Structures are given as C-alpha cells and as structure tokens.
Amino acid sequence: MSVAQHFSQTYAEARDKFFAATRVRGLGVETHVHPLTGRDGEMLAMDVARDGPRNARSLLVISSACHGVEGFCGSGVQIALLEDAAWHQAVHDAGVAVLYVHGLNPYGFSWWRRTTHENVDLNRNFRDFSAEPPRNTAYDQLAELIVPETWPPDPATVEATSRFVAEQGEKAWQQAISGGQYHHPQGLFFGGDAPSWSQATIRHVLRDHGARCARLAWIDLHTGLGPSGHGERIFACRDDADAYARARAWWGEVTSIYDGSSTSALLTGMMWLAAYEECPQAEYTGIALEYGTLPSMQVMTHCAPTSGWKTIPRPTTRRDAASSSRTATPSTPTPTRGRNRSSRRPSTRRTARCGG
Ligand SMILES: [Zn+2]
Fold first, then answer.
1. What local confidence, expressed as pLDDT, does residue 348 receive?
2. How far apart (Å, rounded) are the C-alpha atoms in residues 201 and 12?
3. Fewest beta carbons less than 10 Å away: which of 50, 101, 140, 220?
C-alpha cells in the first residue's frame, strides 16, 4: 500500500480503512457510538482497537481527531501503523500494548470542523466545571475581530486585526485566540461549560484500558501549526521536569508550551490531563504530534468559518446516546450509511486544518 492510500477523503472512508486495517491485524474494535450522525448520514463513533494483552505493564495510546478535521492526518498515521509489520514486531518485542483511538471527535471529523457538536474545543474542555472558569481578557477584547458579524471580514475588521498584529505581534494574537476561552460559546477555541461527549467517552476508554498499566504513554495526532509537513513533538504533560526529560529521552527533540519552545500557545483545559485522573497508578508521559500546514496567521483566520460560527449546519438526526458502547468483531462490516457522499461537502478543503 502506498503512503497516500492510508489517507481518506471522508470520515466514513477513514473509518472503513481503520476497520479493514484492524481486521488484517486480527484486532477487535470497540465502537462508542456518537449521539448524532455525520455529514453524509453515516454513523459517528469513537472506535478503539487494542493490540496487546490487558495486563501489559506498558500502554501506548495513539489517538486521532481530537480536533475533528485534523483526523484526516491522524487516521492515516494510525492505519499506516496498523499495517506496518515491523512496527508491530517492535512493540510486541518491547512488551508494549498499543491502543488506537480513532475519532476522538468524530462529529468534527465528519463535518470538517475543529470543534465537537457542542462547539467545544476538546483540548480546552478538561477543566473543573464546578470552579469559576478562567477569564481570557485578551480574547474578550478581540472577540468581534476574531468572529466578526460577516464573513469574509469587512475592511474595517481586517484593518483592526492588522493593527493589533503590527503592534502586539503574531504570538500575542495566537495566544489570545488559541489559549482557550470559556465566555464566548459562539467563538473560537471555546472550552465549553460542561464535559463534552468526547471527554466522557475518552475518560471511559482510559479507565477501561489504562487502569492496570504501570507506564502510560500517549501520542495525540494533530495538524495546523508549524512548518508545512513537519511533525512537532509537543510535550503533553504537567509542567514536570522528570516527565519532560523522559519524553526527550524517548522521542528526541520535544518542545514545550511551558518554556515557550513550542509553536503552540499556553493552553487551558488540555485533554491529556485525564491521563493523570483516570490512570493515577501509571507513570504518564505524552506528546501531541502536530503536523504543520499553513502559516499560523492563515491557520487562525481559517478557523473562524470552520468553528462554531453561524455557518455551521445544524445537526438534524439524533441517536440514542445512552449505552452507546459495543464491541465489534473484526469481521463486522463497517456500519456506515452514506447515501450521497458528495452532496454536502464544504467548498474547499483548505479551510479546515486548524491546530493547537
Ligand atoms: Zn489540533
């Protein structure tokens, strides 16, 4: 299989390929069904395949689509690994079990959105909602520029944005937007006001699979920031020197949001915090692997019409969300229900590769 063949043009195609790759590997798939259907009427789900024994001391989680549309890259990486015999031999020889989590945010994956169906940035959603949310005052001041009344933005908005960037710098613009905010539900990088479906589901998966391991590693696949095609390994742990040293020993050059070496802003409510909470017995080490796409200002600009803004089509079909987990055998056909896969595609694919 060529490299390109691991990648897909739709969520349903990616899901089909993931199931096919797990069948080749002889793995079962746990399917956690999302309450809504996808852009083409297909089933949405967080699908989980485990390669390795339940009692493995070392568990490596490899996940895709935290930011929905970024799953096109992450899914391709997961499928390529599933089909890589040398990789399987290496992890088996090392005594490492691998957990492939396909479609953390399947709604955003299918609809080419960065956010979940709640317009939540999943990587800002992991905070204590009983506490007062942190205030992003920089976002407050820029909210009307970030998500203007009209799109594309009118000349006055463009001018005001350019003035801010000229005076404060791109980094300040990026930090204000992508750091996360909890007071503009229609805005960008909104962390939500409650745990999202994806948060509850990945917590369940971590508890189920990670409660017995002594060492837990997590590589969460993203796209957006950094030089085009370059995979930046961004430290995804608490600000802990031992964990940082371990990550660098394992993965080589690793950047950090804590010391400013990463292209990512300092974030709030990050997903991997759940690893500490759901698997407290494990020594946790993680990175986000962020593949660069467009220059950061373009990435930020493109996020507006692909996030929770007024142009988002409203979901029309609701599934029963209760007890929506089941196990599929490798021979189970992928339960997609595409009826016209080309009818509602966004007009351009370049608009939706927003990272962070
Ligand atoms: Zn991302």
1. 32
2. 20
3. 140
